[in-house]
Every structure is written in structure tokens, then in C-alpha cells.
Design a protein that fits this description.
Strand content of chain B: 25-35%
Shape of chain B: globular
Oligomer: heterodimer
Structural class of chain A: alpha+beta
Number of strands of chain A: 18
Order of helices and strands of chain A: EHHEEHHEHEEHEEHEEHEHHEEEEEEEH
Radius of gyration of chain B: 24 Å
Helix content of chain B: 25-40%
Number of domains of chain A: 2
Largest interface: A-B, 41 and 43 residues
Distance between the termini of chain A: 39 Å
Strand content of chain A: 25-35%
CATH topology of one domain in chain B: Rossmann fold
């Protein structure tokens, strides 16, 4: 098996920054996950990253992730054993050894959580994920588009409770797991979507962990070389700047375990006189410039601090911040009719049709 | 209105007298070990220089980097007990997990994780176990620790466990200083806990320092009001500052940047403030320090304060200079306020950066004959090293290729000669006392923190009500009404309360009524 890269504790810094950019405002601040991954790597040794093509067709691959509201994750930190407990419990349920760890969501905190399990188990981690971004619900993965069942799934909390779900559809898994997560205090850790190597090769959005590492490095290097960090990230992503402005109002509601909200911006520099409205449900999902919808999910919207290029999460949006909004195209898997049905604007309750965003760069 | 601005740094205590917007006089005195003597001397000098009587001074504003320096240099920090309430949650990352090892060791690395904490919706994670806390109190007592920081999960939503644990510790450990995280920080457990721990380890020092300020002002015969400046450049009264020294953390950079903008009349620039021990570099945008949006580190510790984005290095006029096999080493250790006795030019035996500058012939300070013996090569190599250190931190703060000017302020400005990294250098009048000027022009704030029921009024009405209350609070605290603006608005839904309750926090800031 060819090892693509070895990830040491220090390498988690770049991955966490890239994960925050790919988190499109949500997915939780990767800081906590990064610290947990670093603790695990220091204790058990570095993580081996492999391409999905390295997996034998009959290999057993299991993604792990953290589920819940981002605000909760920065405040109520995990007990520590939840991820490995979920992973081992699922292995036992399946009755055979797991061969590799997979990332469910390469944006936000979940760009880092699989490293905890890969380090502790010594298993390789596949370079890819099930979203190519971050999404708030667990059926919103390319695995669903390829008919992979989320269950059997094991869900663990900080108190030692664990729950095994067997459901009729991934949408039902989301409903039941979400209700359990809210009861568990707004965050839980889980192992799910067990699949074989042949399926993984079709269903995984490839290379996204490397993309996270590369974005983090691009930002670090641009700053070191005094180049515009926003431009460096824009170039790496093939993104378009859709706005630069200051936050004039920020409204938040926590509903059913999600952070909902709207941020309103007033333009600065070349955008003076214009406004941007950004709607989020954990992630930034829809951008409206001067009252006209210009980008919607599944295409990606990410906010960067105008001068430093640091990614900004929906959680840390504050009155008066000066930010640049970038938009870029979603993985092609999402742009199919099935993909749009699963993660398009109407699914999130926005009364607009999906129009593919084409960056003009 | 006659106001005095004072800046108490690690090396110098500076003071200015201002009549409205005019700087009447600015002086420097050495910071003393007791803090008070230096402040008295600076006050007497500046009153004499401005020909002002103590009785005519309306207000004294003090900015100090004393507490930041204590953390950065790991000195005068009390052994501290970090107590977290939240088990079984949070055990994956213990208190101080991401701290530099030396700082952790300085305050003893004493932490306890206990049951308690709330869920996001106010439910209890696990009930407070009073016997467990009494057991911890006994261990704290046995270790001789007198400063305690208590952090409970989701205490910004419900601070009852922190308050109750505080009462238990106060009873079991009479005289202990207790810092509750909910009084200091916002949501974000590790950052809020870090702030509470740092506050706790500074409480012994703050009692001493604030008392010294109070005595110094009384001794000089000044009867006017007395304030300290906090992180965002606004004022807090002395009693409050004593309980919350951590809130002064970024006041130094904020004051120096606002002072630099005021003195130079330049609104967009990079400001380099060279003190005796550290150099702070930040950028000025339209006359205000650029705020950091990501977590700011202080002494290597992550916090979530709203602070200017400043990069600091251990370089100042009192920095130690060592010639080692690996080349010249400048700082981060410094003789600090002892420069007047320990530097070579003042008859001491420690080689400092100021000695090098005097030896090079660029400045006359102290007794130049005491450094005449220094090797020319050593002088050149040290100067090259200093300029390289400054260039490196200016480059870090320079976030665009635009050639902004560099404003040099602070008592250690003599270290700079000529452009830094090709950028034009400005040294404004009174450059050496820019911090004190920044303190003197500090603003007044009014804050509102109220819970509104959105079942009764809508969100806009609630926000507008909170905003107008904040403006009135700022005016009541002494702000000039037409200068007051809203600088911060935050609303946090409290899902666990009936009636769609939302906690709204608004901060308004204005110029002190002159």
C-alpha cells in the first residue's frame, strides 16, 4: 500500500486552517479537533494518508465524525474516548476488522477528527471525504448518492451513553441521530457509513484532506512572502470574490441543534454602496447581493478576513468585521439532480432554484 | 479639562499633561520595583514641566503593560489552581493543554477537573459534587495555593455552578483570590478558561500594583478621578481593575497606537512601539488599531478577547545582549526598570541594547566612556541583529504590499536608525510618551447586558432599546454625546428560557467630555 503522506502533530496546523476554509463557515472550529488529533498523534504516532485507489475492493472502510452545533463543540469538549468507542463498537457489530479510516466531512472540525481514530488505531486514513465541504446533516454525503447506508451506526456521548441505529433510510438516520444528539447535549461522536473499497472508490470526493493541507500551506506561505493571502486562497480554489464588506447586523437562532442565522454586510472599497445578505444554517448556504441571489448550496461560500486571509466561521461573525466572501464550484457529484435534491437550496427551505455558480476569474 | 495620562511600562513610567487636545508636557521616569515611587516621580516631574498645580488636574488615566509583561516574562505570577466543572465531558483536553510548558510550570500546572457544568440549553451535565470540591479545596490548601480560577462548561449561559463553587472555595480557603470565568470571557471553553487562569495568577500582583497607583496619586496631592485603560482603549475604575487585571492585557498596544495616530496625524500606518523590554507592532487603519478576528495569543496562550492585532517580540532598550557561539542573542530577557543601575552606560555590569546604541555613537545617554571598550564588530553585528528583528515583525504586520509608513514610538525608539525593510520611518513629537498620550485620550464606554423576551417585542426593537441604553450609559459615564458610537452588538439566544429569551450585549464608546 503506497503511503501518500505522513501527518505529524505539527502538520495538523495547516490541515486545520484548510479545514476551516473548506468548512464554509460551519462544521465547527477545527481548533478543538486539531488539539485532540495532536494529542493522539503524540501519544500513538503519526498518521499515514493513502489514496482511495490503494484500497483493495473488499477492504472495509469506516468514516467517523462529530455531530452537533458548532457553538456547543467549542464549549463542551469531548470526554475523549467517544470516537474510538464508536469505531470499535461498529467493528464489533460488523464482525470483521476495519482496514482504513475515512473522513466524513473535510470541512470544519471533522477535517481533523478522523486523525484521532487513525492515530489511535494505527490504520491508514483515506485522502478524501463524503462532502468536499461541510454540511449540517448526516445524509448529505456523496455516500448517500451511491446507495451506501449510514447504518448500522454507533453514536457516543461524553457521559458514556452509546446508541446503535438501524434505519430504513439515511434521512431517518439524520432525524433519529439528531434527536439523540440534542438530548446528549448538542454534540455526539459517531462511526457510520461502513463500505467496501470498491464502493469507496466511486463514492469518495477525492484528495480533499490534501486540499486542506495545501490551502493551509498556501495561506501560511503567502503571508510569509507578503503576498495577498486572499488571492493565494482564491487561486488555489479557483474561486471568485463575490463581495468585500463590513458586517452591519448579525442575527442568530439555535433551532433543533443547529445555529441558524443571517449576516448583513455593507460594501467597502470596490463594493461601496452595495449590500450582501448571507444566510447560514451552521454553514453559509446562500448569498444575496443587492437583493439578488448569486450563490446557493451546493456551491461553496467562504469568508476570509480581508487583510490576513484567515477563514472566519459563522460562529465568530461579529458586528463591524471587514471580510471578503469567496464562492466556488461544488464537487460535480453534487450538481446532479439527485445531488440538488439532497443538498440544494430548496432542501434548506430557501425558495429559489439552484443555478450553477460559474466563477469569473 | 486638565488630564494626565500615565503609562507604566516594564522599564519606564511616562506621564503627559494634556489641556484638551494639547500636550502641555511629557516626561519619563524609571519604573521602580515598588511601582509607586516611579509613578510619584513621573507625576511630580510632569506637573512641574507643565506648571500645573495638583489640584487643577481633573482626571488621571493609567495604562500599564505591567500585567502583560508579568505573563510574557513569567514573573510575579502566583501559583494558581485551575478548577474546571464539567466532568465527564471535556476530559479529552485538560486545562492549560495548549499552553507553553514554561508558563504552565511557572504557575505550577495545578488543575482539577470536577463534576458540574451545563448543557447549551441550561440542563445540568452532572450535578455539582460539594464533597468533591471540598476535597479539591483541601488539596489546594495543602499545596499552599491562594489563587483559584473556576471555569464551568457553558457558564456564560448559566453561572450558578461557578458562583456556588466560588462560595465553597472562599469558605474553605479564606483570603484566596477567586476568579470566575463567566465574569471575564465569552463562549469558547479553553479560551475563557485561559483568561480566568491568567487573571487568577495576576491577582496578588494586581492588589499590589493598583494600591501603588492609588498611593502615588494621593501622595502627589491630586484629587481628580482615577481610571485604568483596558483592552479596547476604554476606561475602567481602579477597584474593577484590581479584580480583573487580565482586562488590561492589550491596553499598552491600544494606547500606543492611538497615541501614535494622534501625535503623527497619520491614520494609516504600521506602528512600532519599542519599550524597555518588548516591542509591539500593529497596524493602524483610519486612526484605530486593526482588531484581531482570530484568537489572540498572550505570552503564548490563546484567548478570545477583543484586542488589537499586535505582534510582540522580546526586544527593547533594556534587552540583554549576549555574544554566543551561535551568534548574537538579543532579548527576550531584559534588565527592565533596573536599566538605570545595571546597564553599562549607567555604571552597571550588564550589556544591553542601549549600551550598543551609545557605543555606536548614534545617541548620547549615560556615560559613553563605559562602553568605549566594546568591540566594533560586536556593535555592528548587534545593530544588524536588532534591525533584522524589527524588519521581521514589521513584515509580519504588513498584510499588503502597499508601502505604508512606519511610526516609531516608545522609549526604546533610539534603537531604530533609518528605514525598516525599505519603509519610511516617522518619529512624531513626544514619540517617547505616545502610550501616555494614548491613555490620556482614552474613551469612555457604556455597556448593556440584558435579557429580552422576543415573545413580547421583536428583535429590532430589543436591539434598538439596548443600543440606546448603552449610549445613555456611556454619556452617564462621562462621554460626549455626539461622539458616542456603538462598537459592539451581540445577541445570544437562551433557548432554555421560555418566551424566546435572548441575551443582548451592546457596547457604546465615546470621547471623554472635555
Amino acid at each position: 500500500m503506497h503511503i501518500k503522506r505522513i501527518v505529524h502533530a505539527a502538520d495538523m496546523e495547516d490541515i486545520a486552517v484548510g479545514g476551516a476554509i473548506m468548512g464554509t463557515g460551519g462544521g465547527g472550529d477545527p481548533y478543538v479537533g486539531k488539539l485532540m488529533a495532536q494529542q493522539a498523534i503524540l501519544k500513538y504516532g503519526p498518521v499515514k494518508i493513502i489514496d482511495v485507489t490503494e484500497l483493495p475492493d473488499d477492504a472495509l472502510v469506516v468514516p467517523v465524525c462529530m455531530m452537533g452545533a458548532p457553538t456547543v463543540m467549542t464549549e463542551k469538549l469531548p470526554q475523549g474516548d467517544e470516537l474510538m468507542n464508536a469505531f470499535r463498537a461498529l467493528e464489533q457489530l460488523l464482525g470483521r476488522k476495519i482496514d482504513a479510516v475515512l473522513c466524513g466531512e473535510a470541512g470544519g472540525v471533522n477535517s481533523t477528527t478522523p486523525f484521532v481514530v487513525a492515530a489511535a488505531s494505527g490504520l491508514p486514513l483515506v485522502d478524501g471525504d463524503g462532502m468536499g465541504r461541510a454540511y449540517p446533516e448526516l445524509q448529505m454525503v456523496t455516500f448517500t448518492l451511491h446507495g451506501v447506508s449510514a447504518t448500522p451506526m454507533v453514536l457516543c456521548d461524553d457521559k458514556g451513553n452509546s446508541l446503535v441505529l438501524n434505519t430504513v433510510s439515511n434521512a431517518w438516520t439524520e432525524r433519529l441521530a439528531r434527536a439523540a444528539t440534542v438530548e446528549m447535549g448538542g454534540s455526539a461522536l459517531l462511526a457510520f457509513y461502513a463500505m467496501d473499497g470498491a464502493t469507496a472508490k466511486k463514492a469518495v470526493v477525492r484528495g480533499t484532506l490534501s486540499l486542506c493541507a495545501d490551502l493551509g500551506r498556501a495561506l501560511r506561505e503567502a503571508r510569509a512572502a507578503h503576498e495577498d493571502p486572499v488571492q493565494a486562497i482564491k487561486a488555489k480554489l479557483g474561486a471568485e470574490e463575490i463581495f468585500t464588506g463590513r458586517i452591519k447586523d448579525i442575527e442568530r437562532r439555535t433551532e433543533g441543534g443547529f445555529a441558524h442565522g443571517t449576516a448583513r454586510f455593507e460594501g467597502v472599497d470596490g463594493w461601496r454602496g452595495q449590500t450582501l445578505r448571507l444566510d447560514f444554517q451552521n454553514e453559509f448556504l446562500m448569498a444575496e447581493r443587492d437583493g439578488k441571489v448569486i450563490v446557493t448550496t451546493p456551491d461553496l461560500i467562504t469568508l476570509l478576513e480581508a487583510e490576513s486571509g484567515n477563514p472566519v466561521t459563522a460562529d465568530s461573525l461579529r458586528y463591524g468585521l471587514r471580510l471578503v466572501a469567496l464562492a466556488f464550484e461544488a464537487s460535480s457529484a453534487w450538481r446532479s439532480p439527485e445531488g440538488i435534491a439532497l443538498v440544494g437550496p430548496r432542501y434548506f427551505g430557501y425558495d429559489v432554484d439552484y443555478t450553477p455558480f460559474v466563477p469569473s476569474s | 479639562m486638565i488630564r494626565i495620562g500615565i503609562d507604566v511600562g516594564g522599564t519606564n513610567t511616562d506621564a503627559v499633561v494634556m489641556d484638551g487636545d494639547t500636550v502641555l508636557a511629557g516626561v519619563k521616569a524609571a519604573t521602580t520595583a515598588d511601582v509607586m515611587t516611579g509613578v510619584v516621580e513621573a507625576l511630580k516631574k510632569v506637573l512641574a514641566a507643565s506648571k500645573m498645580k495638583p489640584g487643577s488636574v481633573d482626571v488621571v488615566m493609567i495604562g500599564t503593560t505591567h500585567f502583560t509583561n508579568a505573563v510574557v516574562q513569567r514573573r510575579d505570577l502566583a501559583k494558581t489552581a485551575a478548577v474546571r466543572l464539567g466532568l465527564p465531558a471535556t476530559a479529552s483536553l485538560p486545562p492549560m493543554v495548549d499552553w507553553p510548558e514554561d508558563l504552565r510550570a511557572t504557575i505550577g500546572n495545578h488543575y482539577w477537573m470536577a463534576h458540574g457544568g451545563n448543557e447549551f440549553d441550561g440542563r445540568v451535565i452532572s450535578p455539582l459534587d460539594e464533597d468533591e470540591l471540598l476535597g479539591i479545596a483541601a488539596e489546594i490548601k495543602a499545596k499552599g495555593i491562594k489563587s483559584i480560577a473556576i471555569t464551568s462548561v457553558f457558564s456564560p449561559v448559566s453561572n450558578e455552578f461557578e458562583k456556588r463553587a466560588g462560595e465553597i472555595f472562599a469558605k474553605a480557603l479564606p483570603g484566596a483570590h477567586i476568579s470566575l470565568s463567566s465574569d471575564i470571557g465569552r463562549i469558547g471553553l479553553l479560551e475563557r478558561e485561559n483568561a480566568a487562569i491568567m487573571n487568577a495568577c495576576l491577582r496578588d500582583l494586581s492588589a499590589h500594583v493598583i494600591d501603588a497607583f492609588r498611593k502615588a496619586i494621593t501622595e502627589t496631592g491630586i484629587t481628580g478621578r482615577f481610571y485604568l485603560t483596558q483592552n479596547d482603549g476604554t476606561l475602567m475604575d481602579a477597584a474593577y481593575a484590581e479584580r480583573f487585571p487580565v482586562l488590561t492585557f492589550a491596553s499598552g498596544p491600544t494606547n500606543s497606537m492611538r497615541g501614535a495616530a494622534f501625535l503623527s496625524g497619520v491614520a494609516d500606518a504600521i506602528v512600532v512601539d519599542i519599550g524597555g523590554t518588548t516591542t509591539d507592532v500593529g497596524s493602524l487603519h483610519k486612526g484605530f488599531p486593526r482588531q484581531a478576528t482570530v484568537a489572540v495569543e498572550v505570552g503564548g496562550v490563546r484567548t478570545n478577547f477583543r484586542m488589537p492585532d499586535v505582534f510582540s517580540i522580546g526586544l527593547g532598550g533594556g534587552s540583554h545582549v549576549l555574544d554566543t557561539d551561535k551568534g548574537i542573542k538579543v532579548g527576550p530577557t531584559s534588565v527592565g526598570y533596573k536599566i538605570v543601575t545595571e546597564a553599562l552606560i549607567f555604571g552597571g555590569s550588564t550589556l544591553t541594547t542601549s549600551d550598543i546604541v551609545v557605543a555606536s555613537g548614534r545617541e548620547s545617554l549615560g556615560n559613553a566612556s563605559k562602553v568605549a571598550h566594546l568591540d566594533k564588530g560586536l556593535i555592528t553585528r548587534t545593530q544588524t541583529k536588532i534591525m533584522a528583528m524589527l524588519e521581521d515583525c514589521v513584515e509580519r504586520s504588513r498584510l499588503s504590499p502597499e508601502p505604508l509608513p512606519v511610526i516609531i514610538v516608545g522609549g526604546g525608539s533610539i534603537l531604530v536608525d533609518g528605514p525598516i525593510g525599505g519603509l519610511k520611518v516617522i518619529k512624531p513629537n513626544h514619540f517617547a510618551v505616545a502610550n501616555a498620550v494614548g491613555a490620556a485620550i482614552a474613551q469612555v464606554s457604556g455597556e448593556v447586558d440584558r435579557v429580552y423576551s422576543l415573545a413580547e417585542i421583536d428583535r429590532d426593537e430589543a436591539l434598538n432599546d439596548a443600543k440606546s441604553r448603552a449610549v445613555e450609559a456611556a454619556v452617564a459615564a462621562g462621554a460626549l454625546r455626539e461622539t458616542v458610537e456603538i462598537v459592539d452588538v451581540e445577541d445570544v439566544p437562551l433557548a432554555y428560557l421560555p418566551g424566546n429569551a435572548t441575551r443582548v450585549r451592546v457596547k457604546a464608546v465615546g470621547e471623554l467630555h472635555v
